[in-house]
Specification:
Elements lengths: L10 H14 L6 H15 L2 H13 L4 H6 L11 H14 L10 H10 L2 H23 L10
GO molecular function, one term: peroxiredoxin activity
InterPro entries: AhpD-like, AhpD_core, CMD-like
Protein name: Alkyl hydroperoxide reductase AhpD
């Protein structure tokens, strides 16, 4: 499958994304939690480049293979903290908005609110949105994960 366009992001878009990235990563949410949220949303959306980049980034930050391999089955594994589980549940609901009438039910939000401050929750929601933004661009334009990573 060939990409439909070679570069889906213009320089102005890249600047805007960098500002959103900085905002999401400056609110005090552990980087590992944001990486897991990114991976889970990207798995749901089937975004190869985001999964590849996210897994590589997480590994560079010291993430374990066990946790990376288990993100899709986070409910059935013992590898994640309560805070990470709350963030992953929120990521799933916010990514699958059309799957139910109440897209992000109160119990899911409340579980996340018990684990994170309001600025941290805002950052997680922003990061979920940014991830979904990238997923939609990459999937729509058929971007591929790199094949040559040295």
């Amino acid at each position: 499958m060939e990409p439909r366009i070679t570069s889906p992001a213009t320089p102005d878009v890249v600047k805007a994304i960098n500002l959103l990235y900085k905002a999401a990563h400056s609110a005090g949410v552990p980087a590992a939690t944001l990486e897991l949220v990114h991976l889970r949303a990207s798995q749901i959306n089937g975004c190869g480049p985001c999964l590849d980049a996210g897994a590589r980034s997480a590994k560079q930050r010291g993430e374990t293979d066990e946790r990376l391999f288990a993100v899709a089955a986070w409910r059935e594994t013992p590898y994640f903290t309560e805070a990470e589980r709350a963030a992953l549940d929120l990521a799933e609901s916010a990514t699958r908005l059309a799957d139910r009438g109440d897209a992000v039910p109160d119990p899911i939000w409340e579980a996340a609110a018990k684990q994170f401050t309001e600025p941290e929750l805002a950052a997680i929601v922003l990061w979920i949105a940014v991830t979904n933004f990238f997923n939609r661009i990459n999937v729509t334009t058929r971007q591929q994960a790199p094949q040559n990573w040295g």
